[in-house]
């Protein structure tokens, strides 16, 4: 399977000022893989972007990688 968690972690760490505070939690149920991105409060805007464009891009890239592995994925951004 494609390392979805590592992909999301790499992208998030590239965007923020405090990469050591980035944490990606992966949970899997019968329907999908859920990836929770947790960042420092001051880095939330960098991960979400204006009008959510960066968050949408992260979800698009992750869904494309998951499609190759024939999985469904949901990406959530948390504090």
Write a structural description:
This protein is 42% helix and 23% strand. It has 79 residues and is of the alpha+beta class. It has a single domain (4-78), classed as GMP Synthetase, Chain A, domain 3, CATH 3.30.300. The protein has a three-stranded mixed sheet. The chain is globular, with a radius of gyration of 12 Å.
Percent range for helical residues? 40-55%
Q: Tell me what the CATH architecture is.
A: 2-Layer Sandwich
**Distance separating the two termini:** 28 Å
Q: How many domains comprise the coordinates?
A: 1
The CATH homology group name: K homology (KH) domain
H/E element order? HEEHHE
Return residue spans where pLDDT drops below 50 for at least 5 consecutive residues.
none
Q: Order of strands side by side in the largest beta sheet?
A: 1-2-3
| Number of E-type strands | 3
Strand content: 15-25%
Class per helix and strand makeup: alpha+beta
- Counting DSSP H or I runs of 4 or more residues, the number of helices is 3
Quaternary form: single chain
Question: The biggest beta sheet, please?
Answer: 3 strands, mixed
Kindly report the CATH topology: GMP Synthetase, Chain A, domain 3
Task: Please give the radius of gyration in angstroms.
Answer: 12 Å
Overall geometric form: globular
Q: What value does the average pLDDT take?
A: 93
* The CATH class: Alpha Beta
């Amino acid at each position: 399977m494609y390392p979805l968690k590592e992909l999301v972690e790499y992208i998030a760490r590239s965007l923020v000022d405090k990469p050591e505070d980035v944490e990606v939690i992966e949970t899997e149920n019968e329907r999908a893989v859920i990836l929770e991105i947790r960042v420092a409060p001051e880095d939330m805007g960098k991960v979400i972007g204006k009008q959510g464009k960066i968050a949408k891009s992260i979800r698009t890239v992750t869904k494309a990688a998951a499609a190759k592995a024939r999985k469904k994925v949901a990406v959530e951004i948390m504090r």
